[in-house]
Write a structure and sequence with these properties.
The protein is an alpha/beta fold. The chain is built from nine helices and seven strands. It folds into two domains: 46 residues, no CATH class; 166 residues, TIM Barrel, CATH 3.20.20. The strands form two sheets. The chain has a five-stranded parallel β-sheet with strand order 3-2-1-7-6. A two-stranded parallel sheet has the order 4-5.
Length: 233
């Protein structure tokens, strides 16, 4: 796993070095084009949540059922309410949890698991502004520490992973392959992480949610429960 990522990093350094060499030795057009292509490749692969340039990502279910997912928990306020709501509607969901939060609130993790919901890995510390550019060692630590935190609580490690803000990076897939974990994105979201206008959030969800879609809802939001309620209705 680490060997694969080291080779990936070495290959990237060689390509960038080659582009600089070409640029400085009179082949400015070729060197500049190679450098630009490398930058575009890295940015598109990391900042586009649906990108498959670095490896596979699931953004649809295998049938017409909608996959309901919650990010950024567990949350002392939202998680119990969401669990009660899901129980009332007899619906199962996936909770992509942050490792350090799981460690602080193990009872909530056990409650999610005992009620038959899936628990996913959402990194250890949710470094939303820097995970996209994390190196191989930090990427490994963020994913593996969350795996261990969840496994210590419920005895089972997560089988699915979602990157913070959906921004994966060049080294994620090598770690996931070693752990036999699937990268999961989404096909519909209401941007409830940045907007607290329930009507606008639901309008965005309605416009994008199709049969077989994966819906993203955030915990630790003033409207999380209201949004989930409206979707289930």
């Amino acid at each position: 796993m680490m060997r694969e990522n080291i080779l990936r990093l070495a290959g990237l350094v060689v390509i960038i070095g080659l582009s600089i060499f070409l640029f400085k030795t009179g082949y400015q057009v070729i060197g500049g084009a190679l450098h630009l292509m490398t930058v575009v490749y890295l940015l598109w692969g990391t900042l586009n949540p649906q990108s498959r340039w670095f490896g596979p990502i699931q953004t649809q279910t295998e049938n017409d059922q909608v996959w309901l997912t919650f990010d950024d928990g567990p949350d002392l306020r939202d998680t119990p309410k969401l669990l009660e709501l899901l129980k009332a509607y007899r619906v199962k969901a996936t909770f992509f949890v942050v490792g350090e939060k799981a460690e602080k609130h193990p009872a909530l993790i056990r409650q999610i698991h005992e009620q038959g919901h899936q628990i996913g890995n959402h990194t250890w510390s949710h470094p939303q502004s820097t995970f996209w550019c994390a190196g191989p060692w930090r990427t490994y630590r963020e994913i593996v520490k969350c795996q261990h935190a969840v496994e210590q609580i419920i005895g089972v490690a997560p089988r699915v992973f979602r990157a913070p803000v959906g921004h994966s990076n060049f080294f994620v897939h090598a770690v996931l392959r070693k752990l036999n974990v699937q990268l999961v994105g989404w096909s519909s979201r209401g941007f409830d992480g940045v907007s607290q206008d329930t009507d606008q959030v639901l309008k965005r969800i309605k416009a994008s949610l199709k049969p077989g879609g994966i819906l993203l809802v955030h915990e630790n939001s003033e409207i999380a429960v209201d949004v989930a309620q409206a979707v289930l209705d």
